């Protein structure tokens, strides 16, 4: 039997909690044991594995590269065991427990959440904690079950379920267009004020994307917003310039004529929206229920159909 199989569950728990908490003392409080007991458990695990999981100094405890890689596997294995235990104990009963979901401010607030009405009544045993942010969460370190992400995904460790493909357009206030004129071509953008958006994940400006012809343009924006695209929309409504954003995000402003769409022949570029979760963690019954609810809500909104049709109609 290999050294890995000889390690005890308590040693794995001690290691994972120490990794998450950053110290033996804090891990001991979570596990309700002494710091010395946690330290001994981690040392036994390191001895069994023949690897150093933490770099120790008198002032700090830092995971080694081997420890970081090992933690990802251990956390997934422990989550799998916990999920199996929940499934056995729940049996045929209604699903229950805490489910943590991360959503972006745009699609989350304007599409998803308004369509989750009745969730609490349908699933009284589930506690749904919703984290609203445009930063990508770390499933393992931050303890999330699900996340909604926009754009192309390049993480092979995640399962991705398509929610939709919302379309984008360029918008400005009537006041701005009266002062500066209405752009008719993509080349005319160089003569206008544009409002940019900085991607939280990369810290780089988000290019503007167009169809007919397919083109990517980097706006020369003197005003740029970070974290929430609604800030850029607010500046456009204040007459500060042109903004590119999702049709669903400004539907109300368009109806009230607070914003006007321009460059319609080039509109309709889409960005994929996905529900993601770790491949190596078996979702609990409660998580599976939330997945089904989110997929149902996305189908009801029909981003991939209705919004594309709206973009086509706008170009007509």
CATH architecture of the largest domain: 3-Layer(aba) Sandwich
Q: State the helicity in percent bands.
A: 40-55%
CATH topology of the largest domain: D-Maltodextrin-Binding Protein, domain 2
What is the strand tally?
A: 14
Strand numbers in spatial order across the main sheet: 4-3-5-14-6
The whole-angstrom Rg is: 25 Å
For CATH, the homologous superfamily of the largest domain is named as: Periplasmic binding protein-like II
Number of domains: 3
Uncertain spans: 1-5, 303-316
What do these coordinates show?
- The protein has helices spanning 3-6, 9-21, 24-31, 35-49, 65-90, 105-112, 119-122, 139-142, 174-180, 229-237, 251-255, 285-301, 303-315, and strands at 54-56, 61-63, 97-103, 126-132, 146-150, 158-164, 168-172, 195-198, 208-210, 215-217, 223-226, 243-246, 260-262, 273-278.
- It has 316 residues and is α/β, with parallel strands linked by helices.
- It has three domains: 3-89, Arc Repressor Mutant, subunit A; 95-165 and 272-315, D-Maltodextrin-Binding Protein, domain 2 (3-Layer(aba) Sandwich); 168-266, D-Maltodextrin-Binding Protein, domain 2 (3-Layer(aba) Sandwich), CATH 3.40.190.
- The strands form five sheets. It has a five-stranded mixed β-sheet.
- Strand 9 and strand 10 form a beta hairpin.
- It starts with a helix and ends with a helix.
- Mean pLDDT is 87; it is low at 1-5 and 303-316.
């Amino acid at each position: 039997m290999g050294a890995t199989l000889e390690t005890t569950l308590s040693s794995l728990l001690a290691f994972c909690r120490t990794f998450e908490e950053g110290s033996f003392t804090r891990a001991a409080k979570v596990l309700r044991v002494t710091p010395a007991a946690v330290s001994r458990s981690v040392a036994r695990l390191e001895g069994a594995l023949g690897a150093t999981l933490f770099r120790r100094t008198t002032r700090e405890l830092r995971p080694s590269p081997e420890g970081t890689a090992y933690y990802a596997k251990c956390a997934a294995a422990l989550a799998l065991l916990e999920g199996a235990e929940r499934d056995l104990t729940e049996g045929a009963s209604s699903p229950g427990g805490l489910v943590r979901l991360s959503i972006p401010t745009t699609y989350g607030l304007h599409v998803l959440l308004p369509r989750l009405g009745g969730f609490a009544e349908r699933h009284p045993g589930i506690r749904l904690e919703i984290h609203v942010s445009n930063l990508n969460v770390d499933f393992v370190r931050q303890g999330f079950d699900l996340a909604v992400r926009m754009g192309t995904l390049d993480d092979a460790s995640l399962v991705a379920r398509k929610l939709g493909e919302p379309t984008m357009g360029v918008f400005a206030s009537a006041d701005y267009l009266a002062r500066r004129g209405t752009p008719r071509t993509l080349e005319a953008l160089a003569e206008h004020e544009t409002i940019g958006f900085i991607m939280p994940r990369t810290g780089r400006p988000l290019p503007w994307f167009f169809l007919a012809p397919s083109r990517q343009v980097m706006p020369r924006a003197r005003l740029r917003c970070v974290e929430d695209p609604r800030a850029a929309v607010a500046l456009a409504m204040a007459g500060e310039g042109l903004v590119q954003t999702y049709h669903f995000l400004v539907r109300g402003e368009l109806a009230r004529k607070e914003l006007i769409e321009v460059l319609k022949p080039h509109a309709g570029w889409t960005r994929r929206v996905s529900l993601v979760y770790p491949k190596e963690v078996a979702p609990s019954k409660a998580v599976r229920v939330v997945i089904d609810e989110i997929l149902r809500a996305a189908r009801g909104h029909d981003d991939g159909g209705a919004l594309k049709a709206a973009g086509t109609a706008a170009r007509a």
